[in-house]
Request: fold
Amino acid sequence: MADYIYTMELRLTPNQQKGVTLVQDVARNAGMNVYLTGGAVRDIISGFPIRDLDFTVQGNPLKLQKEFERSGAIIGGTEDDLKVLYLTLPGGVRAEISPARTEKYEKTGKPPVIAPATIIEDLRRRDFTVNAMALSLNPGSRGLLLDPFNGAADVEAKLVRVLHNYAFVEDPSRLIRASRFAARFHWVLEERTQARYESAKENNYIEYITNRAIGNEIEQLAYEDDPLNVVRVLEKEGWLKVLSPHWTTAKIDTNGLSELMRTRQQMNELGYAPDPAAAVLHFLTAKLSDKEVSDIRKLIPRKDLVEAWRDISDHAKELAKRLSGKEAATPSRTWKLLSNARQDMVLFLAVTARQQAVEQKIKNFFTKWREVQQKIPLPEMTELLITPQLPEYPKIAEEVFMLLLDGKLRSRTERLNFLKPLAPPPPPPPPPPRRGRAAKAAVQAQPQAPLAAAAKKGKGKDKGQAAPVAVPPAKAPEKTKTVVPAKAPEKPKAEKPKSSPTKLKTAQKKKAPAKKPSSKPKKKSKKH
Ligand code: CTP
Reply:
């Protein structure tokens, strides 16, 4: 019995792990069996970034809404007839909770008849083998992979394979999904699936696609890491116009979109994880008419995403205004403002800002100002015992950083004048050595600690002296990470980033060179 818990924990970000625990606990408390399903399991096994968490419960997820809200989740939308719940879990983790169900398609183009079911029956109603796996989160079987169609083997073989011959007839949105997954992962359609795909295309089954499926497919585009690539494939296959009749790649702001994805990558490299979904939709539909955009918005199931997309330009304008005003009059104030602003907004503004001053401030925030961290006066701080062990250290380091940003603390005198009042009191002097017979007896009675033993052996003048006085390390503290005052949110577990030149590029964090392991093997003492 394969145990995938270790793999799951290894692959999920800390926030996603917390999200799994949260959903698992809420479902368990309600007495519902719960499984991680669909794309999340596929991505855990394939090694691709895990974009969102799909859960399936045996029961009605809509009944869990209050409990989820109490646990800090935000309800992003619901599909009342299907009883599907869209959540944003703490830390911005997207999740979808569906009830385990069967879907019986009785007539082409008509929605299926739905009935509650077991998890295995639920897996049978799904689109592709790689999406028809479940990972149990239940006590007794936690970590067990349910894979009735051998999806793991298709992940390995990089194949998109339908579960049965009627897959595309029953749900023509699978045609779009097959193209989307093949484009995203650079996988291919399995031979028979390809044949069914071609025949479904010829027979124009796509005309039976439901509005719900269109909305879901448009929403999924917003989460793609390379939306342009996927949209181009959809256009080539003839699916883009199915999603919106006049949608073509010419209607996309391709420059804006490319710049957005590059900037997002750089923010990721700096430890930020802005959610680009609303901005992606903004650029993807940049040249569609207002009516077309409004029609698309009505179809998207996650209402919080629609809201974010609708408001993105206004919010960005507001942030630009604040960045041009008093609130950002100095570099340190600007730093604070940008550190506390919503990172998705900073991302969007970094790409769309028209005022040069605003653009420059964002650029400095990501590049030049970060270099100022290298100037934190560690030697003086260490000299004054202001080290990371001090509880006040992060606060002091932040203050120093802010002053440095504003061009202060240039001279050593200035730095010492600022730091001295913040220094902790010096450690107490060592107790005087004991003398006489009583002291000797006391020393002999002590357990023989290595230092005391060494002293006793006469290796120092002060025989029997207690402990050596702590000397502040001459070296600068190894980790300067704590001095980064702008808290970078959780770093997503993305694929290895491709570096590309852009506006923001210049200041990558200078990492201290890793200590090379000595390549020379230790000399063995020769035996004579
Ligand atoms: N699903 C399906 N048929 C559809 C839509 C969804 O069988 N037409 C099932 C699949 O098992 C899918 C899961 O529901 O994995 C979740 O759907 P969705 O979130 O749309 O896709 P993901 O597979 O999670 O893919 P992505 O990585 O794009 O989120």
